């Protein structure tokens, strides 16, 4: 039996019995500390690799100002999400917020944007992991796909074998990662020469970055346009903090703990981002120019301070941040696919949880296989020589564009919910309010505009559009006729009157 929800995009809900939700149960475990570790752990790899490419478009000053602008965007976003996640404590996160604010199609499209981000970001991170592993062990890069498969197998397994284990691994690797960063800061401070090394980028006749052998260059060698061009790279310093609400149904008290976990996470990341952007290029013998094309900037910094003798140990230490993000974003990927599947937007079978461990094992497996498949297609299409660099840049653009679209949708959802659903209980209210959400949208749009200038962006976006096309056709033909009254859907249909209940 099914009933039509006439007022919301021509979707139909099918009634399901309690056994449907019994097969899709989750376990509550996470408190504030676990949520903080999940948020920080998801992002922390961006302080180990990725952000540094921004030196080639903005120089040191451009990178710093871009990071400040992006931090403002993320503050607006995270305060908005903190308010919505406490008011709508469902696993669906971005999809859930947009579903309540903009109907089923709005929820589905926002969920798709986030789906691209969480399937592709682990693929980007594992390419950085592989670069570190190849550098430490001396592997031939031709074996990279084998390294990807090994890391996916290990960390998908850790996510499947129990929520408690997954969160404990997250806490350990996040704390180790932060300890590694602090150790680097302490090591770098007595070995830095800011003017000589951080300011060693100039502009060549063709407009590209060139090295200034004596340093002492401009803070803003590429001017204000260089600052704007650097925004997509600065995103890597904070990307994925927004995944925290996906843990709502595994949080002991999401209404109280979710806002605390998100805000503490943002404070931690802002401090860490400032320190790494200041110190990593300032280390004697490193410099902004060298870092602008490095796949392992932190390892370069450690090498400059301690020499090559301890490079294997230092490399393993530097890997921890990448592993923390890989593990935690795989967690988010599983929950994101699970929530869209449980509500019927994706094939329902993907939301069945493991009978013993109560984790969304099928969602985790399918998400991981999709990410791996995208990487392998690029690898075999371009060949080993070109593929290494292309996978990093094309996939990074795919992940960041998916994220930007989801941020715009989530900030718009926040504004719409403030205006159209003031009656919903809000245990936490964003101190930045609607202006913070508007600022988030403006900065996200500008970041997207400058992403379009990157030649690798077009390739990435083409793949994202193919992804969207396949999913939209599936939803239009199949999914919208098979929706289920999951917690997110009940809440949205009742306009927030239905109290959240765990099935």
From TrEMBL:
It is a multi-pass membrane protein. It holds the Pfam family AA_permease_2. The chain crosses the membrane at residues 29-48, 60-82, 143-162, 169-189, 219-241, 262-289, 309-332, 362-382, 394-417, 429-449, 461-478. InterPro entries: AA/rel_permease1, APC_superfamily. It comes from the Bacteria. Keywords: Cell membrane, Membrane, Transmembrane, Transmembrane helix. The keyword Cell membrane applies. It is found in: Cell membrane. Its main location: membrane. PANTHER family: AMINO ACID TRANSPORTER-RELATED (PTHR42770), MEMBRANE PROTEIN (PTHR42770:SF7). This is Amino acid permease. It comes from Terrihabitans rhizophilus.
